[in-house]
Amino acid sequence: PKSISPFLTEGLFMNDESPQKTLTYLQAIFNQSADGLMICDSEGRILKLNKAAEILNGVKASEVVGKDVRTLVKERQIDRSATQEVLETKRQVSVIQTTPRSEYTLLVTGTPVFDERHHISFVVVNERDISLIESMRKELEFARQESEKIKDTLTELTLLELKENNIVAQSDSM
User: Fold this and answer.
1) CA distance 1 to 23
2) b or e along 37-72 (b: 16 or more beta carbons within 10 Å of the residue's beta carbon)?
3) Which one of 21, 30, 108, 166 has the lowest number of neighbouring Cβ atoms within 10 Å?
4) Is the pLDDT of residue 14 over 60?
């Protein structure tokens, strides 16, 4: 079996598990996650993504593994890249990303993993579908705007009614 880097497994399991067993656990976590997970190298090339990431991005792994994330932005497969921003800032970054192929709105968090010389080894990307939340936010904003319009109309009608009844409700001298 491949050697597992200690920084990946340190503190992950309490027992003295074999490296193969630990690798099995890590693969299951990666593959069974409901969130999209992606691993990119220090140059921004996609190394691996799970099934959820394929669904959320509307792609197959075979279409994007090996591609630079900047290419995906240029090709408009995504509107922005958390990985690219992580590589530029060298810190964890969260962005709202739209994926035209799947029409999902995603909260994407990219986290750098540093080697012992403090260089980025790779970037771990977590993607969560927030389409429903975004839709609800837009509906709420629309409802607020409609409420303001109704309030303004009611105020105008009240003032008009008061004016018609010769009641002063608005005056320059007030």
Assistant:
1) 9
2) bbbbbeebbbeebbebbbebbebeeeebeebbbeeb
3) 166
4) no
Contact present, 99 and 78 (Cβ < 8 Å): yes
User: In this predicted model, what pLDDT tens digit does every residue of 129-151 receive, in sequence order?
Assistant: 998 787 788 889 999 999 999 99
Order of strands across the sheet with 46-49? Answer: 46-49, 36-41, 120-129, 104-114, 93-99
pTM here is 0.70
Tell me how far CA of residue 33 lies from CA of 1, 128, 163, in angstroms: 23, 11, 65
The beta strands (E) that lie in the chain are given as 36-41, 46-49, 93-99, 104-114, 120-129
User: Which 8-state DSSP code applies to residue 80?
Assistant: -
| pLDDT over threshold 70, residue 75 | yes
User: How many residues belong to the chain?
Assistant: 174
Question: What is the C-alpha separation between 128 and 55, in angstroms, rounded?
Answer: 11
